[in-house]
């Protein structure tokens, strides 16, 4: 059973005192209202009696409104791409995702196995997206796992309570890993209740994590010099290394982009390996001109991983 030390509880109590004051500000109220709207929206479409009637426009709207997809300038492209990637000979993308969502949220089997099955069968939605859907559909059960807890929990000294992979490579998380994440974020929720913020669910805990994320961003930890990069094999050329990165990204179920699709590795063009033929239009339009010249980029949830 995961528990917090008295020192950790005391630190949280101090931070929660400041957070309670923040909740009463205009910005704090806006954050809570935004989460209430998101919760109401997702539950209006994914409740047990409605999920079976989910339409394609409704599913696209869910994907477009996810916080995990905010960086996509063209959210219609992202939503359409997810549907296309899940279209099979026997099922449309809508049928695949709708059926898998119903099983994930309301199936009778062990949740960790349902989570693993969903991640295996549904393409194009990463950990941030999947846990966001789970979170807003059932906020008393599931936490939202994205860059906020990944950043905040280590600063609170809570990394020993979780496997290292949930911080280093969250898209490789298993259902068992996610259950552990929910348990640890649940400890924060319990401390919120113990410190007078009641009732509190995982949505309240997420708001607290966002607040702490901003606090830590204003006071970043000391930066240690990065280790020197490993030298590439003398037998591998530049295009071969790019091809390996693209293949690895595809294996981890990212969308992949290459700056020069005409380069060839082992007789195959890099453009034929990458899943994206053009760079998506980010919300952050100012970086598009620079990003298009980066050798390899992986896309999934939140901001892209540059390689």
Helix content: 40-55%
Principal-axes geometry comes out as: globular
| Structural class computed from helices and strand pairing | mainly alpha
Number of domains: 2
DSSP, total strands: 5
Average residue-wise pLDDT? 86
For the largest sheet, list the strands in their spatial order: 1-4-5
Order of helices and strands: HHHHHHHHHHHHEEEHHEE
Number of helices: 14
Radius of gyration: 21 Å
- Uncertain spans, ≥5 residues at pLDDT below 50? none
Give the arrangement of secondary structure elements.
Elements: H1 6-23, H2 26-46, H3 56-65, H4 75-85, H5 93-106, H6 111-121, H7 127-137, H8 147-155, H9 165-168, H10 175-194, H11 202-218, H12 238-251, E1 255-258, E2 264-265, E3 268-269, H13 270-273, H14 288-291, E4 296-299, E5 305-306
Antiparallel strand pairs: 1-4, 2-3, 4-5
Output the keywords.
307 residues, mainly alpha, 2 domains, 3-stranded antiparallel sheet, two-stranded antiparallel ribbon, 14 helices, 55% helix, globular
């Amino acid at each position: 059973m995961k528990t917090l030390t008295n020192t950790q509880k005391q630190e949280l109590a101090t931070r929660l005192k400041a957070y309670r004051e923040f909740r009463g500000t205009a910005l704090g109220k806006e954050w809570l209202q935004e989460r209430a709207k998101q919760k109401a929206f997702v539950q209006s479409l994914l409740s047990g009696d409605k999920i079976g009637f989910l339409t394609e426009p409704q599913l696209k709207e869910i994907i477009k409104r996810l916080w995990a997809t905010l960086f996509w300038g063209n959210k219609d492209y992202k939503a359409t791409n997810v549907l296309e990637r899940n279209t099979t000979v026997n099922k449309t993308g809508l049928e695949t995702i709708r059926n898998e969502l119903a099983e994930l949220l309301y199936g009778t089997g062990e949740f960790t196995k349902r989570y693993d099955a969903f991640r295996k069968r549904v393409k194009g939605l990463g950990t941030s997206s999947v846990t966001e859907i789970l979170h807003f559909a059932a906020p008393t059960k599931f936490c939202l796992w994205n860059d906020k807890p990944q950043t905040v929990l280590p600063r609170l000294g809570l990394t020993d309570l979780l496997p290292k992979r949930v911080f280093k490579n969250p898209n490789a998380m298993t259902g068992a890993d996610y259950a552990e994440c929910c348990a640890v974020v649940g400890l924060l929720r319990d401390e919120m209740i113990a410190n007078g913020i009641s009732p509190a669910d995982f949505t309240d805990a997420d708001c607290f994590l966002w607040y702490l994320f901003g606090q830590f961003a204003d006071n970043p930890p000391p930066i240690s010099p990065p280790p020197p990069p490993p030298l590439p094999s003398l037998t591998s050329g530049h295009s071969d290394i790019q091809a390996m990165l693209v293949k690895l990204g595809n294996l981890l179920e990212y969308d992949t982009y290459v700056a020069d699709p005409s380069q060839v590795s082992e007789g195959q063009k890099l453009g034929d390996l990458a899943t994206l033929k053009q760079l998506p239009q980010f919300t952050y339009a100012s970086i598009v001109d620079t990003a298009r010249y980066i050798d390899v980029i992986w896309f999934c949830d939140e901001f892209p991983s540059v390689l």
